[in-house]
Amino acid sequence: MSKTFLSVYLARHGETAWTVTGQHTGLTDLPLTERGQCNAGQLRKRLSGLTFAKVFTSPLQRAMRTCELAGFGSVAQIDRDLVEWDYGEYEGRLTVDILAERPGWQLFRDGCPRGESPQQVAARADRVVERMRAVTSAFLLFSSGHFLRMLAARWIGIETLSARSLMLGTASLSVLSYENSLSQPAIQLWNDIHHVLTANEKKGALGACRPSNLQTNEVIR
């Protein structure tokens, strides 16, 4: 793949209490758990040595804190289009409970009552894609799971419902780019979690993940 092609790095925020329980977390502004903070520090190690023209983050604290612990807090800009899906009446609820009262429900097809529709989230993703494609340098985005899945779907031009198949773990790293030409947008890397610590590994590694050990990574000014 040519090095002249744009690469957009996608970092999902670290673990929160609701990602552990599986509750839909849209605009509820939850902090990272201890393990979430630790894995944000691991994300910093994963990104070490990479250079970005710009870094953008969702305004939600789970994304901003992940950005900070990954070493980019001092250079990141807030982009409100990167905020997670507004789940409306489904905020804080489990998928299994939603399906019990609404069989066959699919977020990427049906959206959420009193929340956002897939078309509305796709429109936000399209704005991000348009801004990214206007340049040729590497970008780094910190956001949330469902929005990043929609962003990837819009990048490669597949229907929004297909985004349901793009699983994305907390503190994961993905890369959007092109194959062979600008007419072939592609997913170069998806859901890389090799750097993420498991629950069993966390306890002994916490000392190395403290914020005091984190440094700012490189951004072209």
Summarize the structure.
The chain has 221 residues and is α/β, with parallel strands linked by helices. Helix content is 33%, strand content 14%.
The secondary-structure class comes to alpha/beta
CATH homologous superfamily caption:
Phosphoglycerate mutase-like
Unreliable residue runs: 211-216
Main sheet: strands, sense, barrel: 6 strands, mixed
User: How many DSSP E strands?
Assistant: 6
The number of helical segments is 8
> Could you give the order of the helices and strands?
EHHEHEHHHEHEEH
CATH class: Alpha Beta
Radius of gyration: 17 Å
Total discrete domains: 1
Helix content: 25-40%
**So what's the overall shape?**
globular
CATH architecture: 3-Layer(aba) Sandwich
Bin the strand percentage: 5-15%
Q: Which fold name is given in CATH as the topology? A: Rossmann fold
- What separation lies between the terminal Cα atoms? 25 Å
The overall pLDDT, averaged over residues, is: 91
Provide the spatial order of strands within the biggest beta sheet: 3-2-4-1-5-6
